[in-house]
Amino acid sequence: MAFPPRQDATATYSPETVRAAYPALSDGHAYLDGAAGTQTPRPVIDAVVGAYEAGLSNVGGTFPASHRADEIVAACRAAVADLVGGVPHGVILGANMTTLTYRLARVLTGPGDEVVVSRLDHDANVRPWTQTGARVRWAEVDPVTGELPVDQFAELVGPRTRLVAVSAASNILGTRPDVAAICEIAHAAGALTYVDGVHATAHGPVDVHALGADFYATSAYKWSGPHVGAVIADPVALESLHPDKLLPSPGTVPERFELGTAALADLAGVTAAVDHLAGLVPGSGTRRERLLASMAAAEEHELGLFAEMLAGLETMPHVTLYGKPARRTATAYFTVAGLAPRRVAEHLAARGVNVWSGHNYAWELTGALGVRDSGGAVRAGLVHYNDRSDVKRLLEGVAELRSSPPARP
């Protein structure tokens, strides 16, 4: 599927209008911590509150409060499907990506299988696969560029490969590997692909079919929604899988993959978050079409600001930046000479700049970069509601660390 021309989409992108929808931004802080979870816009807050105020009961009943729950679940599946280009009956909902991935790993792989995992990935797309008893083969990262070379997968994937797990974007370096090429290699060998889209989904248009993902995982709290996870797959493929479940619980797809009662009001918030993203720029057409245009505009906005952030950090001799991938999200990972990453984060927090420090669950990648055992690094990431003032404040705060150690906040 072709995405809309970005130059047209960005013509109407208004950071001021976008920011006005987020009550939390009124506290004056520069929220550069979006890679760990975004802030929540007013429509999402209102949707969650409204669901509770209207009255909710469990699904499948004969009365209005239960009917509302049924409608909320159906609307949430449809919204997530529109966001990534899937179909509603292939959307599995759960507490978070980690929980869902562990559940699916037990169904998809086991002793006697081979799995290919990547050192680029967040540990949630590594450990569930390495703990199934399957034989593990590792795709390595170039520690200088932060790239995940595609050619190695031709050697790693073989006739016994059951599944290839790979990230659509690194949560610390922003690296966007060539997922479509990796999935093509996997499919040629008869293997399945499980793509971690948790970081990628917030930063541009997604088309699961173009990627070649048999399973695509995402988390709504990374794109302005509540703490809800989802895995999107072809319903036909799900029909062949039979996870352990309670005997009375539904045996239908996708419900049989969902344990327990969902956080129903939060699901209403997920739908509102998708609708919010679809309206980042004015437009018409289906929600899917509006999402493609809005997310392309958001990506252009983020990368424009990110170019300024990188240029500023690169001029500072006391800063070391990690990774220089050709395609990336607006995510920077860096250290400051003579200071532990936590101290840098504390210094910036005292100046109203929110960043993270440490390994950020990129356990294998921070090991490959050689920073995991020394406290990791500092992560500053941009999302669609950040603006130039956020970048300016980060650069000013880091520049202050050139000459002397910061005072304790």
Automatic annotation (TrEMBL):
Listed InterPro entries: Aminotrans_V_dom (IPR000192), Cys_dSase-rel (IPR011340), PyrdxlP-dep_Trfase (IPR015424), PyrdxlP-dep_Trfase_major (IPR015421), PyrdxlP-dep_Trfase_small (IPR015422)
Aminotransferase class V domain ranges (all copies): 31-394
Gene3D superfamilies (alphabetical): Aspartate Aminotransferase, domain 1, Type I PLP-dependent aspartate aminotransferase-like (Major domain)
Entries under SUPFAM superfamilies matching the protein: PLP-dependent transferases
Entry-linked Pfam families: Aminotran_5 (PF00266)
Protein's UniProt name: Cysteine desulfurase family protein (TIGR01976 family)
